[in-house]
């Protein structure tokens, strides 16, 4: 067990170190070509623009994701996300343990729902914490979650599983508290963890947790880019009705949007979140990618195509662990 643990840790660390070296090369190249102050301002803006929703005049979109790497070199790296998960190739390990819903049952202090022009996002203060568990070696704190979705009952998830694409995907973003804050962590190879859930968008029942988001949007809040509203805090657990947490996949990847930093330890759950068709339609039909009063384009199909695995290993929880029945789930 210990030997296996060490081996796995060494493997992950080796991948992480390789990625640090790659990131450093990319940054060094960028520094050589651009004046340092401009680079620093550009860096700050790109991070701020994407992560705080100040996306007016955003310089990237989903119509040509293959061109992102021209402006954001990391997007052309070898540890990119999303990926297709081939379940027959996933390497099972005893070292991954089940997640339980109690992890998600804590209510954050504040929640702000916003439209950042690329997604519907909920910023959290006082988000839940994952403390050195499930092979996430440090302490990670949740800071936001957001959604990727399709157009009219199509396929809009970012990851695919055995080439199957779901209607949508929820990303819960956490940062490594070894770093001072999210902004300091976002470009570090072990800086972020994302918990991803596929979304099935044609379920017979409403997901009452998701209503807390869709009702706000239906009321006209966060409908246009740059708009936001404080909402009553709720536990993320509320979104996970009908969802089993038992099986998931783990790999090292990147942000799926520019600047595509290779900083994310991904956890992709096998069982989707279920929402009703009417809830899915709120995303498909009411959300716009532009500011209020401008030429209005619906926001949908906000997913990046799958990226090459480039030899990375996708790990999965050992099947014998799945049957340790857990009343918490
Ligand atoms: Zn995302």
From TrEMBL:
The keyword Iron does not apply. Keywords: Lyase, Membrane, Metal-binding, Transmembrane, Transmembrane helix, Zinc. SUPFAM superfamilies: Carbonic anhydrase. The chain crosses the membrane at residues 38-60. Its cofactor is Zn(2+). Belongs to the alpha-carbonic anhydrase family. It is an enzyme of class 4 (lyase). Reversible hydration of carbon dioxide. Residues 58-318 form the Alpha-carbonic anhydrase domain. It catalyses: hydrogencarbonate + H(+) = CO2 + H2O. Its EC number is 4.2.1.1. This is Carbonic anhydrase. The keyword Coiled coil does not apply.
